[in-house]
Amino acid sequence: MELGAEKEYVGISAIYQFLGNGVQVVSGSLFYIFAARIFPPSDLGVIALFIAIVGLFGIVFTVGLNSAITHFISSNLNSKVYSPGKTLFRILVLGILLALAGLLVVYAFSGYISIIFFHSTSYTFYIKLLSLVLFGNIIFSILNGAIIGFEKFKISALISVIIWVIYYFGALTLAYIDRSLIDIIYGWIIGLALGILIDFVYLLAILARGYMRKHHRTVGSRSIFTYAIPVLLSSIIGYGASYTDRFVVAYLLNTYYLGIYNFTLLIFSGISFIAIPFNNITLPKFSEFFGNDQRAFIKSNVGASSLLLTYFYTPIALGIAALSPIVLYYIAGPAYVSGQYALIVVMLVPTLFISQNLLIQAISSVRKTSFFLYSSLGSLVANVIFSFLLIPYFGLIGAAFGFSSVYVVSFVILYRLAKKEDLVQYNTSGTLKIWASSIFMFLIVYFALHFMVERYGYSLFILPFLILVGALIYTVVASRLKVFSKEEREFILSMFPNRLNSIKKLISILVLGNQK
Description:
Oligomer: single chain
Radius of gyration: 23 Å
Keywords: Cell membrane, Membrane, Transmembrane, Transmembrane helix
Transmembrane segments: 12-34, 46-70, 91-117, 123-143, 155-177, 189-212, 224-244, 256-278, 308-332, 338-359, 371-391, 397-418, 430-452, 458-477
InterPro entries: Poly_Biosynth_Transport (IPR050833)
Largest sheet: none
Membrane topology: Multi-pass membrane protein
Mean pLDDT: 84
Subcellular location: Cell membrane
Number of strands: 0
Distance between the termini: 18 Å
């Protein structure tokens, strides 16, 4: 298991990546909570549209270069032909040009964008300022992708912690002082400017260590765009695929049900931070294997990484599904409890196919990004068909199945294509044991919740109590079933240095069942 044998221990890097992504999720959530205390609901809607505008134009004008820069730098780290440093500057120049194009387009058409999103021109100046946020987002994502490409996972995570805290809480601080929406945008600009500065200075320090390689070549622009354009197109199609069910709910039902349904999906997206560190670490590692002509290592690590992701993600998703009524009650309010069955569906069905995250990284690492066009188109068609067929009869549950079909179809297509490239390897026995442990935990927690709610109502002590019970049940059952093989146990423990022997012992007991 080569992934665990790196000098910079992957386990420590993963912890930092979890920290970085966790801080981003928590900061974003707290941003909305505190913003709700500063601004009226109508202004919160405006902020949401600001974020949507930057997100949509960001997908278009990043053109997948944040993924491309990670891949090409990692795959050339040990190259005797290509220079990682020169590749960095080639992609960065392309990114700056595209970011400038995005800035000019948003600035020039700010009036039209204001009319489309806000039905008036009163937000034209705000959108002109958002063009700077767009520019900063694109450059920051590309620079951060470069740091990950050099496999500096800890630094990438620490920078993310600093920047996202400033990005969100700086904006809130300015808004609290002046009570103005424009201060939110100024806060975002300051946070991104600082992030770009830190990233750029750190990358210069990396390049000073010899990564420029004067007599080596740089990757051509054609190769870069051949890799990046399918990522762009599939991202746009995938964006539409993931929102189709919401549009159909709004069309066939009403905004009341859309509000409830949208909140269930917000909870679903909230646990995505579990998978993101796996994505951030495996893409550069797999790309390095590809550059070293070690495709067999990609395949073996897809299997090990998939099992590890499934081990952590599945019980959390099923735990939230089991606790769905009380989770919705406390996070959103009593009116949202009716969305519990939709939440159960979106937590159960997509989780069956969570390992497609690793398939995506493996496919990206061998430069077969055109495969994503097939999966995104298939997902879009599936969501349209299932949403229109099921929502009229089953309401939000039908919408949840339409949303889940995106993950089912995408996995089936990517699995078949990855198998043709000989990139697929799964531990079926270990995966079934994880699911057996998770389902056992789900059933106990689900029935215990309903019993306790009948007796005590939605008492505050129930949620933390059942979370602890569920975690204990899953940990004990999974360890007794011996989820991980001997080779996989060695792989996991090798992610941590010997100086952290206490952590290794704790992992051995809690995760691996202290198996000999």
